[in-house]
Amino acid sequence: ANTPSPVAIPVPKETAVEPSLDFGAGNDFGDGWGGGTSGDGGGGGGASFFNQKVTAERIAYVIDYSLSMKAKNKIALMKAELSKSIGALPDTVDYSLIFFAGPAWLAGDTVTQHGTREFTVGSGSKKYEWSSTRGAHGFGPLNQSDVQQAKWITASEDELKKSLKIIEKTPMVFGTVWRYPLEMALNMDPTPDVIFFMTDGLAGGDANQLAAKLGEIARREGIIINTIALMEPRAKEAMGQLAKETDGVFTMVESDGTIKQIDIK
């Protein structure tokens, strides 16, 4: 997963998002820009991910590291966009990196696979066991009362450098489950202002129900969820609903890298 790919990375093309007129000096992610765009968390510093621009004090990134990300060089495109976003965070922002496939884990954790349906997540001195009863979409923690607590990271120069290395080196693993990584983000203390949720796959047959449930929780807590479907048109309904329920933005990334912000009716 860490071998450089000979396939060219698609260059994202912005087709539906206009630049903010409130940018600061020098670059798209400098201090001083923000406010006024859909999916704006309000307060704090700025961030942008796949052309979704927000202002917020606390931003949680929930990012798909499943094996299917190998197809069409999606993993390279995601890493490029995520690294650009993280590398530009101002020190007024706290952030969290939550990765998922079948299991969910925090950036920097170790993920060890046992067979095809069991994983161990190592986080410091703690271990979290995951298993599946029904394939790629059936994973869950063995101990539901001992779910990992996501942590906030202050966007200092040292922490950003660590995160950029982790983004590049983290391997992909089997499975795709939305519920647990999003719950990890929603249960943070204090709660996020904005969640960036990016995936290239569906959550199984209950994706729409799950989106409605998680959207209701986020709306109640005042959390905006911006969603990005990476080259997966079938995720439009569920991910669009999740963004709409929370006053967020839904973006579709096409197979050629074109980025389209889509209004959900």
What does this structure look like?
With 265 residues, the chain is an alpha/beta fold. It has helices spanning 74-87, 157-169, 179-186, 207-221, 236-245; strands at residues 13-14, 45-49, 52-56, 58-64, 94-100, 104-106, 110-114, 118-123, 126-132, 139-141, 153-154, 194-199, 224-230, 250-253, 258-262. Strands 1, 4, 5, 6, 11, 12, 13, 14 and 15 form a 9-stranded mixed sheet that branches. It is globular. The N and C termini lie far apart (38 Å).
Features:
single chain, globular, alpha/beta, disordered N terminus, 23% helix, 9-stranded mixed sheet, 265 residues, 4-stranded antiparallel sheet
In summary, what is this structure?
With 265 residues, the chain is α/β, with parallel strands linked by helices. The protein has helices at residues 74-87, 157-169, 179-186, 207-221, 236-245, and strands at 13-14, 45-49, 52-56, 58-64, 94-100, 104-106, 110-114, 118-123, 126-132, 139-141, 153-154, 194-199, 224-230, 250-253, 258-262.
Write the layout of secondary structure elements.
Elements: E1 13-14, E2 45-49, E3 52-56, E4 58-64, H1 74-87, E5 94-100, E6 104-106, E7 110-114, E8 118-123, E9 126-132, E10 139-141, E11 153-154, H2 157-169, H3 179-186, E12 194-199, H4 207-221, E13 224-230, H5 236-245, E14 250-253, E15 258-262
Parallel strand pairs: 1-15, 4-5, 4-12, 12-13, 13-14
Antiparallel strand pairs: 2-3, 5-6, 5-11, 7-8, 8-9, 9-10, 14-15
Helix pairs in contact: 1-2, 3-4, 4-5
